[in-house]
UniProtKB/TrEMBL annotation:
Domain P-type ATPase A: residue ranges: 119-218
Keyword terms: ATP-binding, Cadmium, Cell membrane, Hydrolase, Membrane, Metal-binding, Nucleotide-binding, Translocase, Transmembrane, Transmembrane helix
Signal peptide positions on this chain: none
Name of the coding gene: cadA
One cellular component (GO) term of this entry: plasma membrane
TM regions (residue ranges): 9-28, 64-81, 237-259, 265-290, 573-592, 598-616
Cited NCBIfam families: ATPase-IB2_Cd, ATPase-IB_hvy, ATPase_P-type
Family of this protein: Belongs to the cation transport ATPase (P-type) (TC 3.A.3) family. Type IB subfamily.
Catalytic activity: Cd(2+)(in) + ATP + H2O = Cd(2+)(out) + ADP + phosphate + H(+)
Localization in the cell: Cell membrane; Membrane
EC number: 7.2.2.21
GO molecular function: ATP binding; ATP hydrolysis activity; metal ion binding; P-type cadmium transporter activity
Protein name (record): Cd(2+)-exporting ATPase
PANTHER family: CADMIUM/ZINC-TRANSPORTING ATPASE HMA2-RELATED (PTHR48085), CADMIUM_ZINC-TRANSPORTING ATPASE HMA4-RELATED (PTHR48085:SF5)
Amino acid sequence: MTRQLKQRLLIYGAGVFVYVCAVAATIQYTLSDWVKFILFLTAYLVVGFDAFRQLAEHLMKKEIFSEYLLIILATTGAFGVQRYTEGVLVMLLFELGMMFEAVSTDSARRSIEQMIDIRPEYATRKVRGKETRVEPSELKLRHIIVVKPGERIPVDAVVTVGTSTVDTKALTGEYMPQTVEPGDEIYGGCINLSGVIEARVSRIYQNSTVSKVMEMVEEAQNNKAESETFVTKFSRVYTPVMIVCALFIMIYPSLTFSYGNWDTWIYRGLIFLVVACPCGLVLSVPLAFLAGIASAARQGIVVKGGNYLEFLSKADTFIFDKTGTLTEGVFKVKEIKAEGMTENELLEMAAHVESYSNHPIAKSLLAAYEGKLDRSRVRRVKEAPGFGISATYDGKRVHIGNYRMLEKQNIEHSRIKRTGTVIYLVADKKYAGYIVIADSVKEDAGPLMQYLKEKCRAVLVMLTGDNEASGMEVAEALDMDYAYTDLMPEDKLEQIEDFLGLQDKTEKVVCVGDGINDAPILARADVGIAMGALGSAAAIEAADIVLMEDELIRIKDAIRISKETLRVVSQNIAFSVGMKIIILLLAAVGYFGMWEAILAELGVMFAAILNAVWVVKYTV
């Protein structure tokens, strides 16, 4: 609980104590009207301290009409007709509702922090063989840190010494521990499970993954959604209308059919003002969005603001990047065709020669080769940028590369047309075969596309910088409506602009990506979704929603949470407005006393808030 909230509770408790003493004194003793006024005014000012403070802040911002103006006018009017007990009771119950909302909001925010607050408390820095415990924020680039079993990794770093297993669940949602060894990157917020490791800092604390995630969570609580803006605007119009209606009730009957009966009709006008306070509407809507953000956080989805939940529920166009988003982003050997040797022999030769390269193609060949490497069989390795790699393997001069390499070696052979990357092999000036390396579509991409089409009636679009053959194969496999290939980042942005221009105010465009080149379109779309918190920092920065676990199906979870949140918001608005109309009519004709009216209003407010709080426990 925050310090400010504790102070509010203490002041409120003191006001309640003074009020109870004042009521007891009036019952026990015969007091003059002046003494009663002083006692109840003291209680009123203490209990209503926060209401007056909020009204002052609104007036400083030139926001004259608010629910605080309504309640203060009503209760000061009650004092004017010597209804001291009821006037303080009205303020007491109103502030009780405010306290309930404040405590509920504080609880929801703390639940978010507890679920996602994975910031490390300390770091162990190693300097000249000595270990010193420091604040994570004190670490600088290339500092060496030591992480022992059970400790949380303080910042993003690269392992230099040691092998261990790391629990990445806090960041990625992945339950299976990951093995790390020298050269592997580790991320702040994850937990070292087994061995002692040393690592070199690759990002300072302020720029580390864990710090960025926490910043997004904190920012999420401050962004307002469209429905919240509607409620704020609604109050600005609603308040003056209610004040005019209350004045009409106070004045018109006393001048016409109930001539001279000012006390009765002023009292009813004051009751009308109390009942008119839109507390349930104003408080329950933002709390519902906060609850939706908390529910998403429990599913490993960080939403930067309630407005993005609202936009997501209205989305009808979904635009996806291809590599790393719809596909695994990892090249794998898909086809091997050998001439003059077996396929296994061709792969063995390619793996040995490429074992000296750090190129992604080399890594895919090594991953496909299951045998043991004997680098003594490889000599005189030479890379030729733009062509490939050459080496002497078992006494043979071997060349591996693209079709340009084949032409350079004066080998006549037709170009192989396959989806993906085709690498050709030449051994002792003879064509030896080819290997096709390609990306693969993610397993959950198909089910997500089907869900978007059936449940959201969405238009599905793919934008990629890959060639037409590779792009269209993925688009056809996933039954995309549109596919654009060979695009530069500026071309992708132009396509986004075109789709945005086709939308009306009730339709929204969602963009999903993971790389630096996706950052512009993620920022420009109505909702940008970044795939995985361990992806491009630029994409995470630009996105409105971040999927902590790098799984496409999480988008389905986010949509369901957004729709559930909007359902609760609609329920609260309809319930609050409907009950408000009924209570106002009853108050205007005299069926409600002042304290009965405020109790009815609080009942509506509590019901709406409780409905909103249930969203936090919503699971997909």
